[in-house]
C-alpha cells in the first residue's frame, strides 16, 4: 500500500479518526482550544489576554491580594504573573503597592479603570458564548458547564466550590 497524502482540497478539516472523536479527553481538549481562541479574540479587542482578564476578575471579586495569592488562585507561574501585572499596571488597570507589614510582598488592587474595562470584557464574553455554543439550547449549555465543573471539582474541590451556595 502506498503512502496517501492529504491536501486541504481532498479532506475536510473536520474529519478525524473515530478513536479521537469518541475519546472524551480529546473532545474536551479540542473544545477548550476552540473556546480559548474564541474568547481570546474578543478580549484582544480590549487589549487584554485571558490571564489578564482572570487577574482582574480575581481582584474584582476577592479584593486586594498579594501577588503570590493571585498566582496560586489562578495556577499561574509567578514569573508569568509579573509580566501580566506589568502590562495591567502600565495600562493603569491595577495598582501594586508594597505591603507595609512585609516590604517583600506586593499588594495588588484593581483600579476604577480596571473595573470599567472588566465590565466591558464581561459584556463581550457574554455576547461571545451564545455564538460559540449556537445550536445548543441554553439548558444543554448549562448542563455542559455543570458536568465539566463536577469533574474539575473532584480534582480541585476548593477552587470549584460555589461560594454563593455557602452563604
Characterise this structure.
The protein is mainly alpha-helical and 167 residues long. The chain is 63% helix and 10% strand. It contains 9 helices and 3 strands, in the order αααβααββαααα. It has helices at residues 18-21, 24-44, 50-62, 67-74, 78-90, 112-132, 138-155, 157-160, 163-166, and strands at residues 65-66, 94-99, 102-110. The protein has a 3-stranded antiparallel sheet. The radius of gyration is 20 Å and the shape is globular. The mean pLDDT is 88.
Concise description?
This protein is mainly alpha-helical and 167 residues long. It has 9 helices and 3 strands; from the N terminus they run H-H-H-E-H-H-E-E-H-H-H-H. It is globular and about 60 Å long.
Q: Please mark out the parts with pLDDT under 50 across 5 or more consecutive residues, or reply none.
A: none
What Rg, in angstroms, do the CA atoms define? 20 Å
Return the structural class. Answer: mainly alpha
| Order of adjacent strands in the largest pleated sheet | 1-3-2
* N-to-C order of helices and strands: HHHEHHEEHHHH
- DSSP strand tally: 3
Query: Can you give the mean pLDDT?
Result: 88
By oligomeric state, this entry counts as: single chain
Distance between the termini: 66 Å
The level of helicity is 55-70%
* Number of alpha- plus pi-helical segments: 9
Strand content: 5-15%
Largest sheet: 3 strands, antiparallel
Q: Which word captures the global form?
A: globular
